[in-house]
Structures are given as structure tokens and as C-alpha cells.
TrEMBL record:
Organism: Flavobacterium sedimenticola
Protein name as catalogued: PadR family transcriptional regulator
Domain Transcription regulator PadR N-terminal: 19-89
Domain of life from the UniProt record: Bacteria
Pfam family, one: PadR
SUPFAM superfamilies hit by this protein: Winged helix' DNA-binding domain
Length: 109
């Protein structure tokens, strides 16, 4: 059994929830999203995030806008749609139930 593969699968499973949560407070561009994930010790590469952002946009959970940058080309800022906010609220409830259940199981002696 490859522990790194299992750990990667666990991270993938929560990545969508984490990205939506990052965008809950304010719109952000991809580098900001990646930095926030990295600061939380959730290491993700750009090649994983870009397709996920596109899928979330295509699903109607995110929208985006282009904004000029003082330090390079324009940046694409992502934000939650109303559907995205509702979806995130549902995921938050599910996450709480799931993490509570996992904690009960893994903390049993």
C-alpha cells in the first residue's frame, strides 16, 4: 500500500470544499487561492487547481472577472455565485457530520 497515494486521494477529496471556502469571504485569483491552501499546509499544484476552477465555474458555482494588475497581465478573479454559496453551506454541514464521525471512530480506544 502506498501511503502517499492514499494521502493524495484524501487531499483531493476535500479540495473542492477548501477552494469554495477560500472564496467565501472575497474573490481571489488562482495564485492567492494556492497561497491560502499552501499556508494551511494543503499542498496543491496549479495543474490540479485550474481544471477544478473551470469545472466549478461550468457547474455554476463560481464566476470570474478580469482585473488589471500593476505587476503583469490582467488577473482572473474567481468568486462564488449564489448557487456556490448555497452549495458551500451544504458542504459545510456535510463536512461537520463527516469529521465528527471520523473523529469518533479514530479516537476510540
Amino acid at each position: 500500500m502506498n501511503i502517499e497515494n492514499t494521502k493524495a486521494q484524501m487531499r483531493k477529496g476535500v479540495l473542492e470544499f477548501c477552494i469554495l471556502s477560500v472564496l467565501k469571504e472575497k474573490d481571489a485569483y488562482t495564485s492567492e487561492i494556492l497561497d491560502t491552501l499552501k499556508n494551511a499546509k494543503l499542498l496543491v499544484v496549479e495543474g490540479t487547481v485550474y481544471p477544478l476552477l473551470t469545472r466549478l465555474k461550468n457547474d455554476g458555482l463560481l464566476n470570474y472577472r478580469w482585473e488589471e494588475s500593476t505587476s503583469g497581465p490582467p488577473r482572473k478573479y474567481y468568486g462564488l455565485t449564489e448557487l456556490g454559496k448555497t452549495f458551500l453551506t451544504e458542504l459545510s454541514g456535510t463536512w461537520t457530520e463527516l469529521s465528527d464521525a471520523v473523529n469518533i471512530i479514530t479516537n476510540q480506544k
